[in-house]
Design goal:
With 661 residues, this protein is α+β, with helices and mostly antiparallel strands. The radius of gyration is 28 Å and the shape is globular. About 21% of the residues have low confidence. The longest helix is centred in the middle third of the chain and has 19 residues.
C-alpha cells in the first residue's frame, strides 16, 4: 500500500517549509529513517527521514518549493508490495524522469488497470482519502503517544476539529483534522507511541472525486489543496479562530482589518485577536474575497470556531489571470501600489521566496522584498535577513520603498489614533476589563485555589555582580550588541539551581503524578501598558550567559511590540518576575499554572552589612543587597527543597565565576 510522505512541522509556530534538496530520486530504495530530503524553515534546517522502508514512487514537490506542513511531498511503497515493481515500468513507459511532475507519476498505482484515474493516485487509499500523520510537536520531538481518540470510525469530522489527543515529553495537545470528511480507519490505538509522520488514521473525503480533480493543478505552485476543501462547495474556505498557545481555549476578535467584499491575499492579515497570552494579527489561509463575517468585533469565540468565509480561493483560473497581468502592469507603473498586491502573493517565483512572518514584517515596514538579499537555501529570505535590512537598509532600497510607504499609510494611520482610545478613566466611571485582564484575573484565582502557595525570602549580596557589571557594561554592549543588565545573571543562577533541584522545575499532572520537565524553559514576566505577558526563553540549560542575555532582550522587545508568536508564550516550566524595578523590597508572587514555582526579584539597594575582614574579624560595609522570594507549591516541594534551591541560587550570584561573553 502506498504511503504519503508529508512536510513535517518543525516547531509549534512553523506553518511551512522549503524543500531545499532531494536526497533520493524516483525508483530508489530507501530504509526506514534514512534521510530522503532536506528542508529549511525560519527556525531550523533539517534532513527528513523516510517513515517506512520501501521504494520512492513519486515526488510531488520540486526542490525550492515552499509548502505548508502536512502537505504530501512524496509517495512511497513498502518493500515487497505489488506497487514497488509497477512504477519502474510505468514511469519509463511515460518517459518521465523529472522529479516533482505529478501527472506521469500518478499512473503507477493503477497503470495496468486504467490510464484515466491519474488524480486518485495522489491519495493512497482511495480517491478522496487523506492520511493523518503523527505531527512533530517540537524540533527535538521524535515520537508521540496517542492518549485519547475524540472520534471513532464512521464519525464525520470538520477541518480543524479535534480528532485525537497526544502526549509528548514537551506538550499535551489536541490534534485537529487536516480535512473535512469521515474517519474511515484508525491505525494507532490509544496508549500507543508512534514516530512522527507515522500514519495514525485515514479520513475519507466528503466531497468525493470532485475534490481530487482540481488537485493536480495547484501542485505546481505549492498551493494548499486542503485549505480549499473544508467548505465542500469547491469555492469557499472557512476561516477559524486559531489556537494561540497550548492552554488557550478562546480568543476575542478586537478588529476586522478587511470588510465583506474585500479581496485578500494569502497570508495577508484579515483580523486582530486578543487572548490572555498574546495579541496578534491573523493572516488569511487563502487568496480570495471575504464573503462573510460570522463573528463581530468584540466577540469572544472558542478556538476552531468559524469566524469568516473566503470565497474564490479554490478557483485556479481566476488566480492565474492576475498573475499573468502583473508583468504588464509592473513595468508601466513601478510606483503604483495596485500591482504590488498580486506580486507579493505570487507563489510562482515572481517574488523572492520567504515565510509569512517575513512578508508580514516587510509589509509593516514598507520594504520591497526584491531589495532584501536572502541568505537562506536557494536565496530564501529569512527573518534574520529582513531584520538586518531594517537596521541597515541599502541605498538602492530607499526609492523602491517610497511607493509601498504610500500604500501602507492607510494601514499605519489607524494605528496612531488607537492611543487616545486608551485614555485614562474618569473618576466614577465603570470601565469593563479588557479580555487580557479578565483572563489574567481568572488564572490568578485558579492558581490560588489549586496550588498550596508558600513563600521564602533570601537576602543576596550582589556586590560582586554589581562590580562586574560596572566594569564590563560599556565594552560588553560594543562587543555583543546587547546591554549588560542584572537579569542574565539572575536567570543563569536560576538555571544552575534548577538543574541541581529538578523538583522545583516540575509540575503536577493528573492530580497524582509529577512531571519532571526535560528542559528548563524560563518565563520572564514583562509589564505592558495593556497588561502582563510572560514570554518563555526555551531550553535555557543549553544556553550560555550571552545566549540568555540576547534571548531576554529579544523576547522583551517583541512582547512590547506585539510581535510574539504563540510558541513564545507557551511551554514555561519556571517563572521570573521582576517587581523590584518599581522600588519594592520583595513581593509574594502567584505561581503560573501549571508550574510549581516562581521567583520574585526585589529591588537592588545599598545597605550596611556585617562581613568578615581579611583577619576574620567583623566589620560593617556598604554592600549591594537584593531580596529574592521563591513562591512554591507545597504539595510537591518541601521547605527543605526550597531552601536548598535558594541556597545554591544565592551562592552562584555571590561567588560568580562564569564567563559572560
Amino acid at each position: 500500500m502506498p504511503t504519503n510522505v508529508v512536510m513535517p512541522q518543525m516547531g509549534e509556530s512553523i506553518t511551512e517549509g522549503t524543500l531545499t534538496k532531494w536526497l533520493k530520486q524516483v525508483g530508489d530504495t530507501v530504509a526506514r529513517d534514512e534521510p530522503i530530503f532536506e528542508i529549511s524553515t525560519d527556525k531550523v534546517d533539517a534532513e527528513i527521514p523516510s517513515p517506512i522502508a520501501g521504494k520512492l514512487m513519486e515526488i510531488k514537490v520540486q526542490e525550492g518549493a515552499t509548502v505548508e506542513v502536512n502537505t504530501v511531498v512524496a509517495v512511497m511503497a513498502e518493500e515487497g508490495s505489488a506497487a514497488t515493481s509497477a512504477p519502474a515500468a510505468a514511469s519509463s513507459a511515460t518517459g518521465s524522469a523529472t522529479p516533482g511532475v505529478p501527472v506521469p507519476a500518478a499512473p503507477p498505482a493503477d497503470a495496468q488497470k486504467d490510464a484515466t484515474p491519474a488524480a486518485p493516485a495522489a491519495a493512497p487509499a482511495a480517491a478522496a482519502n487523506t492520511d493523518v500523520p503523527m505531527p512533530q510537536m517540537g524540533e527535538s520531538i521524535t515520537e508521540g503517544t496517542i492518549t485519547k481518540w475524540l472520534k471513532k470510525v464512521g464519525d464525520t469530522v470538520q477541518r480543524d476539529e479535534p480528532l485525537f489527543e497526544i502526549s509528548t515529553d514537551k506538550v499535551d495537545a489536541e490534534i485537529p483534522s487536516p480535512v473535512a470528511g469521515t474517519l474511515v480507519e484508525i491505525k494507532a490505538t490509544e496508549g500507543q507511541t508512534v514516530a512522527v509522520n507515522s500514519i495514525v488514521a485515514v479520513i475519507g473525503g466528503a466531497a468525493g472525486a470532485a475534490t481530487s480533480t482540481p488537485a493536480a493543478a495547484p501542485q505546481a505552485d505549492g498551493a494548499s489543496t486542503p485549505a480549499a476543501a473544508p467548505a465542500q462547495d469547491g469555492g469557499s474556505t472557512e476561516v477559524v479562530m486559531p489556537q494561540m498557545g497550548e492552554s488557550i481555549t478562546e480568543g476575542t476578535i478586537t478588529k476586522w482589518l478587511k470588510k465583506v467584499g474585500d479581496t485578500v491575499q494569502r497570508d495577508e492579515p484579515i483580523f486582530e485577536i486578543s487572548t490572555d497570552k498574546v495579541d496578534a494579527e491573523i493572516p488569511s489561509p487563502v487568496a480570495g474575497t471575504l464573503t462573510e463575517i460570522k463573528a463581530a468585533e468584540g466577540t469572544t469565540v472558542a478556538i476552531n470556531t468559524v469566524v469568516a468565509i473566503i470565497g474564490g480561493a479554490a478557483g485556479s483560473a481566476p488566480a492565474a489571470k492576475p498573475a499573468a497581468a502583473a508583468p504588464t502592469q509592473a513595468p508601466a507603473a513601478p510606483g503604483d501600489p495596485k500591482p504590488a498586491a498580486p506580486a507579493a502573493s505570487a507563489s510562482v517565483g515572481e517574488t523572492p521566496r520567504s515565510s509569512p512572518l517575513v512578508r508580514k514584517i516587510a509589509k509593516e515596514n514598507a520594504v520591497d522584498l526584491h531589495q532584501v538579499p536572502g541568505t537562506g537555501p536557494a536565496g530564501r529570505i529569512t527573518k534574520t535577513d529582513i531584520l538586518g535590512h531594517l537596521q541597515n537598509p541599502a541605498a538602492a532600497a530607499k526609492p523602491a520603498a517610497a511607493a509601498p510607504v504610500a500604500a501602507a499609510a492607510p494601514v499605519a494611520a489607524p494605528a496612531k489614533p488607537a492611543a487616545p482610545a486608551a485614555a485614562q478613566p474618569q473618576p466614577g466611571e465603570l470601565v469593563p476589563m479588557t479580555k487580557m485582564r479578565s483572563i489574567i484575573a481568572q488564572r490568578m484565582i485558579e492558581s490560588k485555589h489549586t496550588n498550596a502557595h508558600v513563600h521564602t525570602v533570601f537576602k543576596v549580596d550582589m556586590t560582586r555582580i554589581a562590580r562586574i557589571r560596572d566594569k564590563e557594561k560599556n565594552k560588553y554592549e560594543q562587543r555583543n550588541g546587547v546591554k549588560l543588565t542584572y537579569m542574565p545573571f539572575i536567570t543563569r543562577a536560576a538555571v544552575v539551581a534548577l538543574s541541581k533541584h529538578p523538583i522545583v522545575n516540575s509540575a503536577i499532572e493528573g492530580g497524582n503524578a509529577i512531571r519532571y520537565n526535560k528542559n528548563i524553559n524560563i518565563g520572564i514576566a514583562v509589564a505592558l501598558d495593556w497588561g502582563l505577558i510572560v514570554p518563555v526563553l526555551k531550553q535555557t540549560e543549553e544556553k550560555n550567559f550571552l545566549g540568555i542575555a540576547r534571548g531576554i532582550v529579544d523576547l522583551a522587545n517583541r512582547a512590547r511590540n506585539k510581535k510574539l508568536a504563540p510558541d513564545d508564550v507557551s511551554g514555561g516550566t519556571f517563572t521570573l518576575t521582576n517587581s523590584g524595578i518599581f522600588g519594592e523590597q520583595f513581593g509574594t508572587p502567584i505561581i503560573a499554572q501549571p508550574q510549581s514555582a516562581i521567583l520574585g526579584i526585589g529591588g537592588l539597594n545599598k545597605e550596611p552589612l556585617v562581613i568578615q575582614d581579611q583577619d576574620g574579624g567583623d566589620v560593617i560595609a556598604i554592600r549591594y543587597i537584593q531580596r529574592f522570594t521563591l513562591g512554591f507549591d507545597h504539595r510537591i516541594i518541601d521547605g527543605s527543597d526550597a531552601g536548598k534551591f535558594m541556597t545554591d541560587f544565592k551562592n552562584v550570584l555571590e561567588n560568580w565565576s562564569e564567563d559572560i561573553g
